[in-house]
Amino acid sequence: MSELKLEQRAVTVSSAEVKPPADKRPPGPWRTAWKKFVQNPFAVAGLIILAIFIIAAVCAKWISPYDPTRIDMMFPNLHAGTDGHPLGTDELGRDILSRLLYSSRISLTVGFLVAFVSVFIGTIVGAFAGYFGGWVDTIAMRFVDVMNSIPSLFLNILILAIFGSKISYMILVLAFTSWMGVARLVRGTYLQLREMQYVEAAKATGVSHFGIIFRHLLRNATAPIIVTATLMVGGAILSESALSYLGLGVQTPDTSWGLMLSNAQEFMLTDPLQALYPGVCILTVVLAVNFIGDGIRDGLDPRMTTIPRRRLAQWRKKFSKSEI
Amino acid sequence: MTEYLVRRLFQSVLVLFLISILTFAMIHAAPGGPTQVFLAPGLSPEAAKVQAHNLGLDRPVLVQYSIWLGHLVTGDLGYTFKNHIPVGDILWPTVKNTMVLMGAAWLFSLLIAIPWGIYNSTSQYGFSDQTSSFVSYIGFAMPTFWFGIILQEYFSLKHDWLPLSDMYTMGKEGNMGDLFMHLILPVSVLTLGFLASYTKYAKASMLEVLGQDYIRTARAKGLREGRVIFRHALRNALIPIITILGLDLPILVGGAALTERVFNWPGMGRLFVDMAVAREYSVLMSITLVVSVIVVVGNLVADILYAIVDPRVQLGSKGGAAR
């Protein structure tokens, strides 16, 4: 009787021992990154702010009080808060708040699409250059040198002046002049990764070059690519605003923060506050995106462990033996 | 050293050559081709043909390119479209003005950034260090031209302390004091942009040197901290900054272009934007090339300086310091 009990207990113990590994698997790298990201107050704040801007941009149609293109010459240059215009009107009587909301659509779209396209170009060029090496690498990197030697603002303006200013062109042009950083980064990663043993194994089992580049290696290069992609969004928004400010980006029926700034500069004397709003929007969004990018970078970097100050103080109290 | 110099020089010339091809190809890739770009609109087909023949646009592309390149090398940049003025005549004065603005901003930001970076490296995470990282976050996220507009509104429209725009007040051309007053606002705008990165680089470079053994030795000898930092560490910490200054040149030139536009500074960037709006392609091509020459030469000089200043640099291996 007692033997049977013992046996039963043994069984239950062993089953309990088998189970935990299924539940308590070590957290994956993405989960760890997310956990670290959430602990970073700046990154979370950035995420919230960006989310607010995205929601505002998506719902611009419903929440903006007026049509952003409606010209009302009866009430130009109204100050903030008059006659139902929360932020006033511009020199043509267009409602500034509505224009800001509609601008956020274009600025955010351009920012994200440019980052996406340039990461796409950069990854492909960098992957081929790094994986194959030799003359492919030489040609690609020489091309990167050439592109890096022309200040991108000048190249953007030149291309837009030749081909005409359209939003779709602008996205392509901005992407065309900003993929070099990604290409260098991906090439560097691939140069290291291609020496790995699993690449050798994949080759031995007959996996094609294409398969190795995009199935086996790309996964291992994702982390740095994501980080640069995020940080690129901010740069793209800034470039878009610069081009629109110069009159070569977004054209008048549409509106963007940069375009609003160039209007505001002409009418600085009548309403100085007009220049403030679009600039603050750009600054906030880019700051938010950069904070998110930094948060992702720190989260994905296993060497970066941020120890909260309070915990550090606790440890000091607990383990420090000095009497000072 | 000579071998490195020759190779580096060859590389630079090659890059410039490729840039000229790229610029040339872009005009040819324009919708309608160069005929559309260079001929006056509204010409009859026959007249357009004659014009195209006179301009040499009916010749093979390679011939056109080599003729263009030949003119470029001898300093002939072509003529403007509208008034048929030689491009060089309107371009070179603006290059000089841009150099004045860029040089001033560059010098000023280095004068602030290097001491600030050094100080931050000695007192990490202190108030000054936190301030500098705050400034750099703002500097990276703020549109420079917007900062310019805000400064204009405050300093020249609200309180008439500083001139609003341009390089000289009317009738005071060549007056140094007047130039200085006009420089203050644009230089502060540009400085904020550069300060962000230069202070960071200076601090990082200094921290790296301060972690080395010979610094510990110097401290162990009982040298005063000031002597360790300025005599032993600073010299080595300044070396990597040279390269970064070279690599940052494109950003510098681009930023100067926007600032010039905001403050109506008669420089290359403003000319470029005006000419882009007016579709003056020969001027645009020339400015793109001049700017690229500035950047390539700047990088070359930085690399050579780096090799001269730092004897530890192993020339020849791994493609030299230029990567």
Automatic annotation (TrEMBL), chain A:
It is found in: Cell membrane. It holds the Pfam family OppC_N. Residues 104-293 form the ABC transmembrane type-1 domain. It is a multi-pass membrane protein. InterPro entries: BP-dependent_transpt_permease (IPR050366), MetI-like (IPR000515), MetI-like_sf (IPR035906), OppC_N (IPR025966). It comes from the Bacteria. GO terms for cellular component: plasma membrane. The chain crosses the membrane at residues 42-64, 108-133, 153-177, 217-238, 275-293. PROSITE patterns: ABC_TM1. Keywords: Cell membrane, Membrane, Transmembrane, Transmembrane helix, Transport. One of its GO terms (biological process) is transmembrane transport. Belongs to the binding-protein-dependent transport system permease family. This is Peptide/nickel transport system permease protein.
Automatic annotation (TrEMBL), chain B:
Pfam families: BPD_transp_1, BPD_transp_1_N. The chain crosses the membrane at residues 99-119, 131-151, 179-198, 237-263, 283-309. Keywords: Cell membrane, Membrane, Transmembrane, Transmembrane helix, Transport. It is found in: Cell membrane. The keyword Heme does not apply. Gene3D superfamilies: MetI-like. One of its GO terms (biological process) is transmembrane transport. CDD domains: TM_PBP2. Residues 95-302 form the ABC transmembrane type-1 domain. Its main location: membrane. GO terms for cellular component: plasma membrane. This is Peptide/nickel transport system permease protein. It comes from Paenibacillus taihuensis.
